[in-house]
Request: fold
Amino acid sequence: MIAKVSVDVPSAQTDRLFDYLVPAEWQAYIKPGMRVIVPFGPRKIQGFIVELTNESEFKQLKKVLELQDMEPVLTSELIDVGKWLAAETLSYQISAFQVMLPAALKSKVKKEWVLATNKQDLPLFVQALFGQKSSISTEVMKELNKQEKIELQALLLSGELIEKYKVIEKAKQKYIRMLTLNEPYTLEAMEADLSGRAKKQLQILHHLVHQKQPKATNQVLQDLKTTRQTLQPLLEKGFIREFEQKVYREAMKDLTIEQEHAFALTAKQKAVLAPIAEKIEHRKHETFLLHGVTGSGKTEVYLQAIAQVVEQGKEAIMLVPEISLTPQMVKRFKGRFGDLVAVLHSGLSAGEKLDEWRKIQRQEVKVVVGARSAIFAPFQHLGMIIIDEEHETTYKQEDNPRYHARDVAIYRGEYHQCPVILGSATPSLESYARAKKEVYTLLELLERVNNRDMPTVEIVDMREELRNGNRSMFSEVLMEKMKEKLEKQEQIVLFLNRRGHSTFIMCRDCGYVATCTHCDVSFTYHRHQHKLKCHYCGDERQMPKTCDSCQSEHIRFFGSGTQKVEEELTKLLPQARVIRMDVDTTSRKGSHERLLESFERGEADILLGTQMIAKGLDFPSITLVGVLAADSMLHIPDFRAAERTFQLMEQVSGRAGRHTLPGEVFIQTYTPEHYSIQLVQAHDYHEFYRKEMNNRRLAGYPPYYYMALINISDQELTKVISVSEKIVQVLKRDLQPSTIVLGPVASPLARLKDRYRYQCMIKYRNEPRLIETLRNIQDHYLKETNQGNLQIHMDLNPFIFM
Reply:
């Protein structure tokens, strides 16, 4: 039997299957989708069995060295998905397989040398090397001089040293110690053996007698307020037995879960659920676009649709765009489906992620709630896939393979013949246009549950505030409203899509702006650490006391980030309790859950944050939302800037007045006349869609055209310009005349991490030769991209143009 293996070497030369012999003892249970260790040149590396066959075109084959799994980690469907993904995103097949699995399953193979003879027979320097150890690693070998290396090589050839390969897993199985009574002994016999003074030992025995199942040692000691010293005599006498038991690490265990029952649906929710339920019943694939305003009860529709899927014995995937949304969604899903729910997102530890993934693989759960990568959950009987907030750019992966979760969801939906629901209050223009063309089925919920009013939105012209002498980051009307809400003990959300303290620092005398030495961007000032930080490469430096250019002391801070807003709130509203949520405050594990639960319990009056607080949050006491700088996304060089601004403003507005109390929203802006801001006031998505589609048609952007973006970067500027120009020449020569090739031009961020960046863009309606042409370009520059600093990135569905 021959295994065709995809080896873990992501390069063009290895982007194919390699044949290996399967040892006879494994042939009965080896399957496609298993991880194996195979020899590859002088190395031993991990790979995936993609196919099994009985024939090979090669005569001399090496053997598979080690099986890493007893069950396949990739189902036959996921192997197909991986092949499709590699072709669609111009990436390597191994990269597609790796992205589907938790990082803990990516093993490292470490080379080491083991003694095959008595240590005393070896040279003194070798004896010293080994010391008390039975093996030495490659790191030790690197420190040897040339003569010592030659002697070691001779020992390897003579067989006195053996070269071995050790597989190192990133996360190990978790075990806990358990206690149980030893059956031969009766309670009376044990009591008789113990002295009357051994009260704590008797307590342990009585405690375990009442336990029907073994109990965790730590829990017993904690419950009885005793120590291991009390336990030891009982173990030595054999009265109780201690053993290790495999357990799952519990993801998000600090969440308080309350059991929840299904709510009665409104007539409109029933009308929306009916066509979805029909497809579930008849096991047919269809893609639905659920356009429901904020607070219209989309989540309840999802829950009741999933309940129907679970009743059929099938499984469901529920995607959310942000980790910050996961706690609230998990609480609702676990409240409804209990232990049938697994959680997958980047905020979990490697071990937690592996355990949650194992539950799915072993079919112990029926529902997965998670971020983008959860779309690859190894379910084998999928009955539904839901993508909530489908317009979010976080569903697009910006590293290889550059996939969009929506495309993978539709591919898997077709494979399993199950419905896919794309839900949003502000659908992406591409999705809504497809729904209008009946590629997707459009379902709409245009009113809030129980006919609650949408929040009133007031647009505040900050130019007028400046004319009136108000230089604060808060308009007068917003400040008055905040004071009013604090008096009423209602909660406030303040949104600013910039973290840090100040956007940049500038010298008032010469105009010098402190910029990152590795990137063409200004440093952001972080007050807490008194440091300047680059948000692109992570470089940081101490805040200078004088200007680097003219040595002046007149350095001033410009622009505002969330840290500065928090500082101002402390000065202006000292009675207000503020929780700040941004990348800086949520970097620690579990911080999202802690901050949101604290706000939900009413331990803070104001929730201040970046876009992680803009969507999905549902708190009854929020009655005021303030958007501090609506223009921050409007003027960036991106054709989707207006769409993203409207989506973000509408989403953050939807946090107010979701329950009995009415909501108010104040949007501060320097461009109040822009239609993307004006139409938030009327909550008019349809009018925004009409205007924005007209602009896209005139400018030739999606959904009227498809796009592809090629990014070229190198440490030498001349090399980048030369390669970019050659690539554009090839594109113009090989693609159809109707296809538009723009560039090459310097990227909006022209230098990042000491690399100069150029880009060219392709716009097309139908280009049959695109994939072939791009593959040819990849192959042509293969040697340079593998050996040198040149990097060429190709994105067939770009979302970021910076």
